[in-house]
Structure formats: structure tokens, C-alpha cells
Amino acid sequence: MADIYKKEINIQSYDKDFLVNLLRTMVSIRRFDENLIRLMQEGKVSGFYHSGIGSEGLSAGSINMLRDSDVIFYNHRGCNQKIAKGVPLSKLYGDFLGTTHGTTRGLGAGIVHSADPSRGVLGQCGTIGSQFNIVVGTGYASKVKGTDDVSVCYFGDGAASREPLHGSLNWASIYKLPIVYICENNQYAISSHYKETHGIREHIADWAYGYGIPNYVVDGNDVLLMNEITKEAVERARRGEGPTFIEAETFRHRGHYEGDPYDYVNAEELKYWKEQRDPIKNFKRDLQQAGIITEAEIDNLEKEIQDEILAAIELAESAPVPGRERIFEGLFS
Ligand SMILES: Cc1ncc(C[n+]2csc(CCOP(=O)(O)OP(=O)(O)O)c2C)c(N)n1
After folding, report:
1. Residue closest by Cα to atom 20 of ligand 1
2. What distance in angstroms lies between residue 76's CA and the mean position of ligand 1's atoms?
């Protein structure tokens, strides 16, 4: 059975800049998302969008220790992860607006195809769970090249019900690959609760136990706890000791996609996660209670981030859409 990860967190033992940076990342992620939804409502962005509001702590806490040469495979709710890995906000907006400012320079990226190899963001696949196969390749490449680069693979509870997870865990275990598996368990895959669709004993992380991989369940909305567990897993991978499986518990504040009525979720439960378990609200409270940051400093940070976002949107929007000469770009004859 998976271990429930617990650690005494003394907020005073962290450096103030480190803590404020975590808060900055979380707030940037949320404001990015809210402003993107606004652009959708204004008719400027079309297609499906899977909002990551509610799980900012999970992404911010598990990426800040990574280097550019460490690779992440984000999931379809993964703007959170791309922002935490340092992909510029304007480039992500460019991907949604379809302009040449985007990471794919307007070739139709949306949420699942943006890529920024210089920061270890290699892109994604349309079918959920495809990253389980690819991460074995990047993990193996680190081993063959003799680097200590780590690959971090994000996926939802729904994706975890797909069979490629098992092949991936088996290989990662046999070859002691430097991979950190992070299951973002927000409990639902579209409208199915994970307990209805998984043959697990209790936790999804229990599966990794069967492959001899250290496995933990953690409160993914506690950014510092998330940071501690991932740091341990990343250090372990860098030392050549192999993969770790982290199941991070969270909840999405919005429906599966923008437009989903979200009526399959109990209203009281949703209210509880929004009011009691919001990662940003709770972290702000902890920082203030510990005397690390004042309300005025938080207000300034919020304003700075909103200005940054508006400037990013303007930059992305003012770029042109790609011309038809790009249509064959990237195709082989
Ligand atoms: C192989 C495959 N099956 C189904 C889909 C359609 N689909 C996209 S997201 C999704 C639910 C994923 O749930 P989960 O992994 O729990 O992530 P969450 O949306 O809850 O964050 C499904 C069924 C897909 N993209 N690929």
C-alpha cells in the first residue's frame, strides 16, 4: 500500500525569495487561466480548454527544482506545468490565439501541442497517456548519455487507467530510469470518479508498488509538501536510484472543459475544495500568519502579475497569423 507522505513543514526555515517565487508562480498560473477564459468568452480563442484552476500548488511545487535540461511531459490540463517550467506567458497566449508569436509559431498548438525544447518542454500527444511511452525514451536517453537529467511525467487519474502506464513503470523500474511520475488525481476523468474505473486496492500509487517503485500519496494542494516530496524524488533520480511515483491529491474548480456544466460533482464537495483547500488562498494565509509577507505586498504582487499578463496578451495578439507558405513546413517528402 502506498505511503501517505507527511513531513513537518516549518515555513520559517525557507528563504523569503523562495516562498514569494512559489506564490508568484501560482498566482501567474491562475491569472493566466482566468484571462484565457475571458479571451474565449470574447470569441478570440476557440476549441477545447481544460482549465487547471485549483491545482496550481501541485505544478508550482513540483517544478521549481528542475533545470532547463530536465524534461517535463505536461498533460491536457498542463498550462500550469508549462508556466512553472518557465515558458513565457506571451508564447502560450500566442499558441491559443494562433499567431506567429506562439511556441509553434501559429501552427495550431492550443493546450496540448505547445513545445519549448530549450526549457525541456517537448510537447504532448492528443491521446491521453501517450506520455507514458515517451518518458521512457527521455529517461533512457539521460542514462545512455550519462547526464543526471530527470524526466517528470504528469498525468491524470483517468490517464492512469490506460495500459501504457504499466509498460512504462515496468521499464522504468528494470532500468532504474530517472523518471518522476506525478499523477494529478483530481478524482474525475470527465464525469467518472476514479474509484469507478480503477481496479486498485485504495490508491492509484499502489500500482507502482507492484513494480518495485517507491510510491506516495500527498496533498497536492500543499505547495511546500509537494515541493519536499518532489525534491526527494528528483534527487533520488539524479543519484541513479530510479523512478518514484507520486499521487498528488487535488480537485478541479471548473468542469472538464470550458462549457461542461460540471453537474456530476456534489456542490458541497466542490465548495469545500474551493473554500478550504484552495492552494493559493491557503499559502497566502500561511505566509501572512508567519509574518513573511504583508497584505500590501500581496496586492502589489497581484497587480504586477496582472500587468505582466495584459502585456503578454498584447504581444501575442499583435503578431500576425501564419501565411500559407508555412503549410508544408515540417513535412518530409
Ligand atoms: C486515449 C484517449 N481516450 C480518451 C480521450 C478523451 N479524453 C480527453 S481528456 C479525458 C479525461 C482525462 O481524465 P484525467 O486523466 O483524469 O484528467 P483530468 O481531465 O481529470 O485532469 C478523456 C477521456 C483521449 N484524449 N485519449
Report:
1. 189
2. 8
